[in-house]
Fold this protein.
Amino acid sequence: MSSRFSNVKLGPPIEVFALQKAYVDDNNENKVNLSIGAYRTSEGQPWVLPVVKKVEKALAADDLQNHEYLPVLGLEAFSQAATCMLLGADSPVIAQGRAIGIQTISGTGALRVAAEFLSRILHYDTFYYSKPTWENHRLLFINGGFKHAREYTYWDHIKRTINIERMIENLENAPENAVIILHACAHNPTGCDPTPEQWNMIADIIEKKRLFPLFDCAYQGFASGDLDKDAAAVRMFAARGLEFLCAQSFAKNFGLYNERVGNLVLVMNNTKDIVQIKSQLTLIVRGMYSNPPNHGARIVSTVLRNPDLYEEWKDHIGTMSSRIRDMRIGLQQRLQRLGTPGTWDHITQQIGMFSYTGLTERQVEHLLDQYHIYMLHSGRINMCGLNEKNLDYVAKAIHETVLLFPQKDKRCNC
Ligand code: LMR
């Protein structure tokens, strides 16, 4: 029988979720999941942060809580606290009323709302994303109405550092008003952030060429363990008087992955347009999902606004970021001890959740087929998937795989 749906083409799978499913379905007892970016304890388990559990219990017992709609732009107390966390409590931009935040459906929702605002309201049509970047940036901006997707060089795969010269050159050639997506900290997937000097160079070129910066801030506090340090680039842009947007996610730093807690921050030069801007954001959200969910944002808001809970949460961030650092050291030392061909210092030099290992696609395939170790085809691994129980297994598997399928370029295993 003919059907209206028979011409629908099969779309490509979303790699990270396809791998996650394949991992769950895999019955091999040695399997290791280094794919999706989610924190795991040293037992390999998801972690509900104790402070989150505490607030959830209090909310459940609070008879004043209900399930009424939130306003279209979400919980204002949450957005204010989140904006403050990003820009700093003593931020002149906040004091001058030049920053607003709206609650969104995690960082992804913030990016999608931002894209639609920039394309439909400001009429920007070109965006640049780093090569490589988080695989969703492109889709979000195309779906948000942008016409021209461009890459800027970010990674030097031989030196395994940022190729700042090429990046600046690419930005130099970008048209005015091109939106430049920047990772605020813990660049996904490379784990390599610009130095303060390089950030200044990036800000210079953005200012000179009248480009529009948009930060994706998914790892504040999670990268270095220090909330202020991880926000330094964003704050530097604010201090220089640049206007920008920033998408904040609370998935990783609060472990609230499925609660979709996010905030879109707009930093602008004056306050006179705020009412109009909010009215347009309201229409965008209303036409997309009407209003955001309450639960996760209520938790984050409660923690950020209570000094004791805030300190408790900062301890949790420290726990997570230091465990990741330990795993970096653990893997690098094992590979060095085994004498695995190639250099592995980058594993400890990179920061945040991921390591861009430089393993080739062939090696990644072999690690999956032979050892049931799951990672992105780019060689990106989630460091949190490692623990004392599987480190030896993973290091040995990488060692054997690199011996079996050597890199062509001896300087580099990418
Ligand atoms: C990741 O990069 O693995 C995470 O941010 C999950 C996702 O949505 O891609």
Summary: Confidence is low (pLDDT under 50) at residues 410-414.
